[in-house]
Design goal:
Number of domains: 1
Helix content: 55-70%
Distance between the termini: 29 Å
Largest sheet: none
Number of strands: 0
Radius of gyration: 19 Å
Length: about 140
């Protein structure tokens, strides 16, 4: 005769605050891409403050937002993770293009800075995140059990 042991769950699962689904490769890549984006902006924030205070604050905000988005993705919280990540990565991507073409408020356009190494690295991370966002949104979600 076999006895069945009760399932032991974590406090988070009992409270319903953590979705215990395993993280997929696309989520791990998304977490890495958004963290890379945030890290680059934190590293470059000092130079950005030298150009304009608001630009430095935006760089720091990008880093903090990326960290929060990565945490949300890890915790399987779609809005906090993927949506905030899209705002962070998409906003940075658009601001980079604007800074090279029409300029940012109070700053002239920098058409010769398109291939700045940290800028290109950031664009690659942001672009990868945006692609992964589209893939994740097109994937069917599991029905609750």
């Amino acid at each position: 005769m076999t006895t069945r042991r009760p399932r032991v769950s974590t406090d988070e699962e009992r409270e319903g605050t953590f979705n215990a689904r395993p993280l997929t490769l696309s989520k791990w890549l998304g977490i890495a891409a958004i963290l890379c984006t945030g890290f680059i902006h934190i590293v470059e924030a000092r130079d950005a403050f030298g150009e304009a205070t608001y630009k430095g604050l935006l760089f720091v905000g990008n880093g903090v937002g990326a960290l929060v988005a990565a945490f949300g993705m890890y915790r399987n919280q779609r809005e906090l993770g993927w949506m905030l990540g899209l705002l962070v990565a998409g906003g940075a991507f658009l601001a980079y293009v604007a800074s090279r073409t029409v300029g940012l408020p109070g700053l002239p356009a920098e058409p010769d800075a398109w291939f700045e190494p940290m800028g290109v690295a950031s664009l690659v991370c942001e672009g990868l995140f945006i692609i992964l966002f589209v893939v994740a949104q097109n994937r069917p979600t599991e029905a609750p059990r």
